[in-house]
Task: structure prediction
Amino acid sequence: MPGILESLLPRASSFAVEIDVLFDIITILVGFWFFLVLGYFFYLIFRYRQRDGHKAEYISGETHKQKQAIEIPHYLILVCDVAIIIPTFLVWFNIKIDVPPPDEEVRIVAQQWAWTFYHAGEDKVLGTEDDIVSVNELHVKNNTQYSYHLESKDVMHSFSVPVFRLKQDAIPGRVISGHFKPILEGEWDIQCAEMCGVAHGIMGARIFIKSEAEHNAWLAANTPDSTGAGTLASANQNPSQEKKDQNNG
Amino acid sequence: MAEVVHVEVGHGEHHDDHHELSFWSKYIFSTDHKIIGFQYLFTGMAMALIGGYFAYVFRMQLAFPGSSIPFWGTLSPAAYNSLVTNHGTIMIFWVAMPVLIAAMGNFLIPLMIGCDDMVFPRINRLSYQIFLLSAIVLLASFFVPGGAFGGAWTSYAPLSAKAQYNSTPFGAPLWLIAVTLEIVAFLLGGINFITTTMNARAKGMKMFDIPMIVWMIVIASILFMCSVGPLVAGAVMLLFDQTLGTAFFDANAGGDPVLWQHLFWFFGHPEVYVVLLPAMGIVAEVTCTFARKKLFSYKLILYSSIGLGILSFFVWAHHQFISGVDPRATYLFTTTTLLISIPVAIMLFAFVATLYGGSIRFTTAMLFALAFTGEFLLGGVTGIWLGSSGTDIYLHDTYFVLAHFHYTFVPIAIIATFAAIYYWFPKMFGRKMNESWGKIHFWGTIIGFNGIFIPLFILGAGGQHRRIYNFQNYPDLAGADMQDMRVFATMSLIVMLVSQIPFLINFIVSIKRGEKAGRNPWKANTLEWVAPSPPPHGNFGPVLPEVYRGPYEFSVDGREKDYWPQNEKP
Result:
C-alpha cells in the first residue's frame, strides 16, 4: 500500500521513503488521539446538553481520582511523543548527519531569481573546465549518489525538490552541503521555498533524472570546449566556497 | 496565601473627571480602562477587515491566476508579496495582540478583580496612542514610493535589510518601525496588567480566586516581556542595516543573516502562546458559564500554562531545522517541541472534562468556545508533523505549515474573540446581541474556515510551497486537481468573509437596539457581572465588591441557584 505522501507525489530519492514512513507513523499516532478526543468531545456535547429537570454536577477536578482523567492520557501522550521522537532522530541522522560518500557532485547557486547549476563534467570534479553550467535545469543520473553544495549570491533562498522530499535553505556567505540519490527517472519541479523578493513566486527550475546512457549523452553533447562555458564556470567560482561547511545537508 | 491588601487605584485621580465630559475626553483621550479596551477592540476589528480583504485578494489570484480581481484589479507579483506579508503582520500584531491581550485585558481585568481602573491609567492611554500610531505607520507604508514591504512577515535578512533586494526602500523600514512601536505599546500595557492584578484585587480575592482569563493575560504579558527583548534588539539592528549601512545581517561584510532568524523566532514562537493563553482564558470563562460547571482542575490548567510558557523559550529553532543551523541542535528542539504538546493537551483535556456532567447551553458564545476547542485540537496535533525534524524537511514552508498555523491562529484570534464578544457584549453595552444572527455568523465562519484550510493540508502534503504567486509556472502543481482545491479554498474564504456581514450588522444594531441585558444575564459568578451594564466610570460605584470564593462555583450541591457569585456573602 502506498504511503500518504506517495499517493500525492512520487518518491524520487533514496531517503524519501524514510520521510514518508515517518509521516505515516505520526499520522497514525496523532490521528488516533485526534479522533478519540474529538469523538469523546462530541459525545459529551450531546450527552450533557441542557434538558428540563437536569442539573449539572459539581466536579472540581481537584480530587486524585478526577485528576487521573487528565493525568493518565497525558502519560500516554508522553509515550506517543517518545514513539515519534525515536524514529524522527533515526530519520534525521540518516538524512542529515550520516552523509554517504558521493559518486558525483553538483554546485547549486541561487540568486534573485534563478538557479545556476554547475555539473561536474566527465572528470567528475567541480571547478574544472569541463563543468557544465545551466540555468534553471539540473541534470542528474539515476541511482547515483550525489553531493550538492548550495550557495546564495544575495538573499535567503531555499532549494526544494518535493519529489526528493529534500529542502535546504541557501544562505549568503555559506556553502551548505548535502546529499541525494535519485531513484526515479523523469522530470520534476524545483521550487524556491523561501521568500526571496519580487519574483520569488516564479523562481522555479526543473530537475531531469535520466538513465546512465541518456545522462552521458547529455554530458557529451554539452561539455564545453576550452573557450566555452567551463571557463565561465571557473571565473564565477564563489570565494566563499573555501569556507565549506560540510555538516549540513 | 498572603493577605490581600486592596489598593484603590486610578479612580482617585479621576474624581475631578466625573462631571459631564466632552466627546473627545470621554472617548478619544480617556484614561478609563473600558474605553481604552474599546479603542483596542475597534482598532483590531478594523485591522481585521483590512487583513481579511488582503486574504481575499491574494486567494483570488491563486484561484484565478492572472484574472482581474473584483475590488482590486490585476495583482502584480510585488503587490502579491506585500499583501501576503502584511496580511500575516496585521493579523498577528494588529488583530490578535490588540484584541486578545489589550482589549480583553483592559476591559476585563479591573472589572474581574473588582477594582475601579488600571494602576497606571495614563500609561494605559499612552499605550493605545502608540499602538494607533503603529497602525497608521503600517498602513502608510502602502502609499510610499516602492510600496509596502513584501519580504514575508518573518522579514528574513538580508532580503529585509537592503532596498536593492526588497525593492521597497521606504516600505521595509516603515514596516519595522510599525512593528517596533506596536511592541512598545504592548510592553506598556503588560506592565499595567501585571501590576494591577497583583496589587488592586478586591478584598478577599486570593491568588486562586482570580478568574482564569485574568491569570492567562498576566502570564501572557510576562511571557511577552521575557521574549520580546531579542526581537527589539534585532529590529533596531535591522533598521540600522536598512538605513545606516551597518552589516549586522550582511554576510558579505561579516554579519550573519541567520542571526536575525534566531532573534525573530526566540520571540516569534512564544508569541503564539502569548495570544493562545488569553484565548484559552476566554474559553474557560465561557465554557464554565454555559456548561454550568466548575472549571475542571483550575490549578492544573494554571500550572500547565506556566509550564507551557517556560517550555516555549526552548522551541524556537524548530522554525530553522532546514536553515543551516547545526543539524545536531535539532535533537534538542525536536524533543522540546514535541514535549510542549503535553501542557497544551492538559489544558484542552480540562476544557473537554469541564463539559462532563454539565448542562450545556448552546448560546452563540458557547458555540464559538466549543468550536475553539475542536478546531484548536486539529491545529495543535498538526504541529507534531512540523515539530518532528524528519518530516519538517519535506513539509517546511509548504501549505501544510500554513494550514497548521491557521488552525491554531484562527481559533485563537477569530473564534475565541467571537466567543468573548458575544459573551461580554451585554456587559460592554448593556444589551445582548441577537442569537439567531449570531448562529448564522457562527456556522458561516466555521464552515468557511474549514473549507479554506483542509484543502491546504492536502496541497502542502502534495509539495506545494507557500508564497508562490502563480502555480501555473510549476508543471507539477498546475494540474486540475490542485487548481480545483485552490478554487474551493478561495470560495470558502469568501463564505467566511461574507459571514462577517451579519456579525457586523448585529454588533452595530445591538448596541442601540439589542435586548436589554441587566447586570448578570448569563448568571455567571465573576465580579464583572456585579457591576452595572455598561459599567460607569469607576465600575462599581462607591463600594467595591468583596470576594468570598473562587470564580467557578456553579451547580454547588445543596444550593437552589446553580451559580454562586464571588461576592455573595456565605
